[in-house]
Fold:
Amino acid sequence: MGSVIFFENRDPTKTIIWLLILGVLPVLGALLYLLLGRVVRKRRVSRHKQVRLEKTEEILKDRQVRPSVEDVQQAGDIPMNRKLARLLFNDADAPLTLNNRSQVLTNGKKTFRVLFAELEKAKDHIHLEYYIFHNDAIGKDILNLLMRKAAEGVKIRVLVDGLGNSSLTKRFGELKKVGVETAGFYPVRFPFLSRRLNLRNHRKIVVIDGRVGFLGGLNVGDEYLSRNKKIGFWRDTFLKLEGDSVNSLQTVFLNDWNVATHEGINGTRYYPQALQLGNQLTQIAATGPDSDWGSMLQIFFVALTSAEKTIYIETPYFIPDEGSVMALKTAALSGIDVRIILMGVPDHKITYWASLSYVEELLESGVRIYRYTKGILHAKVLILDTEIGVVGSTNFDIRSFSLNFEISAFIYDPTFAQRLEIDFHQDLADSEELLLEEYKLRSFSNRIKESSARLFSPLL
Structure:
């Protein structure tokens, strides 16, 4: 097994860690490697994934704006916008669309209120895709609504990640009786024999009649409404989209559904002609382990190195690669206002301590870092120069960059970016800033936790 690990030619740090684990704990190390460590080649994932939706290009050829040199000028005269738009198109196959409008939904109450209102309006179909879908109070409310809409003749499909949704899968039979179609993405039945255990679908997508779409950080569960007393207040961000960008969300859902069910679902009913709604230039980036170029890691790197004034980041899990750390430090040293809000109340302790291991070196370069103390911070937001706003499911960590199937909306619009900044500054007020001199005085035991968690962070 050591020879197998050696000849995989993966990141040297990961190779060394796995060899050390294997040497110190041979039996346990071998089992852990079989469970968590095996490499799944991109072409292998793509072979299972790609039902290319051949009709989609034909359906949308007159509706989607493809970024030629002239088209990208719609992103404005800002070089950062044009550079990022080209990269998103070439790296993540993200069409550039102009006829869009959006609504930022802050936290669970507003998100679910707007979501329920749109679900009630459904006439033709409802597509839901979630990483976590609990069969608790809010989950049951949504399922009951879906069952009622199915009885009205609305076609409904529910796709959940194939790991950790046992409470919902128990209800699949009940849903199917009333016509709701359900599926699990990459279910894991024999963990030690499956290479897919680490490949999780972390996306949160809702598409209603092909006219309204949602994406962001919220799953379905009472905790996202701050109803769980043990967890407390839950801070998150979701996004409602209308216009041509919904076509991209629809394509992602149908492709994921095809992966899970091997059904080649497509057709004009899923891509209705959008009304003229606005002029928000938008790209939907769907990335994952099947991406050809590493996608979101490259996209975030270019975003960080292209900003000239401000970089604002909110992320619950912060385990960057060395390139991203260098980009953040270089930006701060160049005089750019770089601020990062991290989770202050940990829900996953190893990830929490690994995130803190990067704090001191970033503070030394001038990056300002905050810990959110009001509750659980789960929002995934990036704001650049008050020009570009990014909302989605992608955390700023290795797992989101390389293992998870993720989705994010990039919107080139100062008004949208300003709206995100309002929430960002409120979150700053609900956070504690970490100061370099004080942080250097942290206890030795905390330093051990940080260093130990960081050592194993490539395996998380």
User: Anything to note?
Assistant: Residues 47-52, 65-70 have pLDDT under 50 and may be disordered. The two ends are 20 Å apart (CA to CA). Residues 44-75+103-275 form a domain with the Endonuclease; Chain A fold (CATH 3.30.870.10). Residues 170 and 353 are 35 Å apart (CA to CA).
